[in-house]
Amino acid sequence: MKCPRCNAEVADSATLCQHCGSPLRPVTTAFSYLPAGAPPWPSSGAQLPASLATLPRLDVSGAAQNGATPVSPTPAAPVEARPRRSARSILAATAILILAVVLGVGLTLGSLYTSGQLAAQTPVKPVTLPKATATGPAGTAVSPTPTTTSDLPSPSSFQSISKTGSADLQASLQFPSDWQEDAPQTANGTTQIHFHPLQQLGIDFGILRLSSADSANFASPDALNQFQLTSIQNSQGVSNFQIITPVTPQRTIGGQAWPEQDATFDITTSGGTLQYHVTSIATRHNNVYYNIVFYTPSLVYNEALQKYFQPIFDSFKFTS
Length: 320
Hints:
Among the domains are: 1-27; 137-318, 3-Layer(aba) Sandwich (Protein Transport Mog1p, Chain A), CATH 3.40.1000.10. It is 22% helix and 25% strand. It has helices spanning 50-53, 87-114, 163-169, 212-215, 221-233, 301-315; strands spanning 158-160, 171-172, 174-176, 179-181, 185-187, 190-197, 204-209, 238-244, 250-253, 256-269, 272-285, 288-297, 317-318. The chain starts with 49 loop residues before the first helix and ends with a strand.
């Protein structure tokens, strides 16, 4: 093109004549936000290339613009979850485990039993015992302050045991006339009868005839004596229980030897603490055990033995 002012040849894209400096086209002021060297932004009427016009533009709500079908973002691939066991399968597994344990224990015990290492044992049946409590036998109150001098009442006479008592014990005996004979108590074939003064002296005399089944639980008269003393030791209200050496380790009653074991214990009442002396003697007759247990306050034990218990022993006879 030529400069309109000096007719000099200038480039078609020039805006000023390089010879005379005159403007070649009207001057317009324009501002661009594009960086230097960037291609010009297309005009409003320009069309986007076909490769770009097909891409959807998603707004914040996810709706597609330009009529394009909305596309949801592809979620991350889920981590494969472990399969859950059903309740039925869990119960089945538990049942199998328990069954295996039971069978294992059963086989072990069976093996021990067959080899003789596990012997069957018959539990010892409890035998009703004279009660050493603050209330005394058969509800008779124990005096907290018994006679402490040699003045226990001497029996004026003796009477025979009742026919019922003699039949149940299969033995006869005599006891002081001013004493009381309690009704026989029987359990599992074992019979016991108590005799005691009507006065509140804290004295009791009990005799037992064990059944064949109960007798089978004891290996010897000493084992039965030990069982009786241990039972008294564990009675409520008994304290300071001590085994002592008997003056007479073995008595002869009804023509048979009766091994003896003795002990002392304390009972505390509202009137104070009182020490008692208890004796257990036992023998085996016709394959069953007989057992006599008697106790008194320790201070009068020897006197009660002389006045009351020894005459009872002397009168005792087996009737079977």
